[in-house]
Write a structure and sequence with these properties.
With 437 residues, the chain is an alpha+beta fold. The chain has 7 helices and 24 strands. Strand 11 (226-227) and strand 12 (232-233) form a beta hairpin.
Length: 437
């Protein structure tokens, strides 16, 4: 080949490189959530723990989400069941023949599994126990405070100086998990970075529960509804775990029977009954915390209904039995408690209380008939509602934050001569505080 031909070929190849690069980029598959779940599920099916005694058909994807990085990194959480206790290949071990539920958290990066941890205790990739570093209470509190201050919700409109640590609880676990409750205020309703949203300009108090362990923040949930780590509404797992069934039953009992002097425990210890042989196909867990003992049993099926028994030895002592299904619906079967009525004041009741308050002080006002309601909440406004009621010359606006047991702001206008106007607030106990007369 002569020199002229050689140079010509070189020029053609170099000129084609950009086109080849663009083609390669265009044809590179995007690693999405579906592919990540498939990779994680395939890994689990061949992993030593599940391969040894995994119950066929017990695998279920509980959650999957992309890491907050520009890379294709996904976390997939899968629940599964084994016929024996323990992890890995247990061929040479003496293992308890007890049906055991597990949760594995798998990190998938560009199609490859880079981390897989079962029950936060066992490294399934390396087949070794997970080694943790202890975090001191002071370090945990500092981590939680730093997280809150840098979080999108507080960064957007947090009120300086409003952050306060309400409670710190250390779980009896290894590594130690700290549950830190932090309260703070924002100058608008809503969560996260709300740029571009229509927001109610109202001072809003939030409570964030931050879980810290091993020198890092594991989770952070605001007001029980917003996942601040992943910036989305709190995701309820596809499968309701027994711990949530326990908590739902305890909350139901406290609320339904007006046990205002009792609070649900934050941390529970899991205990085991000695001498009780396991029942194949049925799992029973026992949780204890102070005067509380809760038994949670369920058949080993895809979506179990939990049978819950609560024993409380404090004052007043009581027993309660019922079930909790996968939608967190609690059904009572028997109890030694007598029911009491627990009411939450609604916007219509706040309207009526305010109207009666005004009429008592101004008997000259005309009477009204039945009310017609109109929702005045702007479309896209988060965390705040305004309802307007009209009837025969009366107009009543009731505004309130979308929180548990809100305080209602009420504006009353009566089309009389002269026009009568009143503004005030109504508390949950029915008390009225006028702002103007």
């Amino acid at each position: 080949m002569n020199t002229t031909k050689t140079w010509l070929i070189a020029i053609l190849v170099i000129g084609a490189l950009p086109a080849l690069s663009i083609y390669a980029w265009q044809t590179t598959p995007v690693f999405n959530e579906k592919a990540a779940v498939k990779a994680a599920t395939s890994f689990l099916s061949e992993a030593p723990t599940y391969s040894w005694d995994g119950v066929e058909g017990s695998r279920r994807v509980l959650d999957s989400y992309k890491a907050q990085t520009p890379d294709a990194v996904w976390t997939v959480v899968i629940g599964f069941t084994c016929a024996h206790a323990g992890y890995g290949d247990r061929s040479d071990q003496m293992v308890a023949t007890v049906v055991t539920d597990h949760v594995i958290t798998i990190t998938v990066e560009d199609g490859s599994v880079v981390e897989a941890v079962i029950d936060d205790e066992w490294d399934e990739l390396r087949q070794t126990p997970v080694i943790h570093d202890d975090t001191t209470p002071a370090e945990a509190e500092e981590l939680a405070m730093e997280f809150v201050m840098s979080s999108p919700t507080f960064s957007f409109d947090g009120v300086p100086g409003s952050i306060e640590v309400v409670d710190i609880v250390a779980a009896e676990s290894y590594p130690v998990q700290y549950f830190i409750t932090v309260a703070f205020e924002c100058s608008h309703a809503g969560y996260g970075d709300r740029t571009g949203q229509a927001l109610a300009q109202v001072i809003t108090r939030h409570v964030m529960r931050v879980t810290v362990s091993d020198g890092r923040v594991l989770s952070a949930v605001i007001d029980g509804v917003w996942d601040e780590v992943n910036q989305r509404e709190k995701v309820v797992s596809e499968l309701l775990p027994p711990e949530m069934a326990r908590d739902a039953a305890v909350a139901y009992v406290i609320e339904r029977y007006g046990l205002s002097g009792l609070t649900a425990p934050v941390e529970w210890a899991e205990i085991h009954e000695g001498g009780q042989p396991p029942v194949l196909g049925y799992t029973k867990l026992i949780y204890a915390a102070g005067d509380w003992t809760v038994h949670v049993g369920h058949a080993v099926v895809a979506r179990p209904v939990y049978e819950v028994e609560i024993e409380f030895s404090g004052e007043p002592a009581f027993n309660w039995n019922g079930t909790v299904d996968q939608s967190s619906t609690v059904t009572e079967q028997s109890t030694s408690l007598a029911p009491t009525q627990t009411d939450i004041l609604g916007p219509e009741e706040a309207r009526d209380i305010a109207v009666e308050y005004v009429k008592a002080g101004h008997p000259e006002l005309t009477e009204h008939g039945s009310w017609e309601m109109e929702n005045l909440t702007p479309e896209g406004l988060l965390g705040y509602s305004t309802l307007q009621y009209t009837s025969e010359g009366w107009t009543v606006k009731v505004s309130f934050p979308v929180v548990w047991k809100p305080v209602y702001s009420v504006e009353i206008t009566v089309d009389a001569d002269p026009v009568f106007q009143w503004t005030g607030s109504v508390e949950q106990d029915g008390s009225v505080t006028p702002e103007t007369n």
